[in-house]
Design goal:
The protein is of the alpha+beta class. The protein has one domain (3-94): Alpha-Beta Plaits. 41% of the residues lie in helices and 30% in strands. It has helices at 12-16, 21-34, 60-71, 86-94, and strands spanning 3-10, 38-44, 51-56, 76-83. It has a 4-stranded antiparallel β-sheet with strand order 2-3-1-4. The model has no long low-confidence stretch (mean pLDDT 97).
Length: 97
């Protein structure tokens, strides 16, 4: 399955209710599982972003739906990118003209 990295920042609502964050993460994990996707890792981070999620999903449409659904609840903003494994990277590079 494709891998995705979501860079997350709490909104004002999210930081005001930061103690509810673990429960929100649990609900997100359940939503991912229901969509045949998986949150592989979660990291609280310092710097520009507040958290990073590494996830796998069947395709871009599934991850977009999950991220939009999660974001629409108002506690986080996300920037999500597709991540390529080393094997995928090597295949892409090898196919260049």
């Amino acid at each position: 399955m494709p891998t995705y990295i979501a860079l997350m920042s709490w909104t004002q609502k999210g930081i005001e209710n930061v103690k509810e964050s673990p429960a929100r993460l649990d609900r997100a994990k359940e939503a991912f599982k229901a969509a045949n996707a998986e949150i592989k890792a979660f990291y609280l981070v310092n710097g520009r972003y507040d958290a990073v999620v590494i996830a796998e999903a069947p395709n871009d449409e599934v991850i977009a739906k999950l991220v939009l659904t999660t974001g629409s609840q108002g506690s986080i903003r996300t920037e999500t990118v597709r991540a390529y494994t080393e094997a995928e990277y090597r295949k892409i590079i090898a196919s260049l003209p």
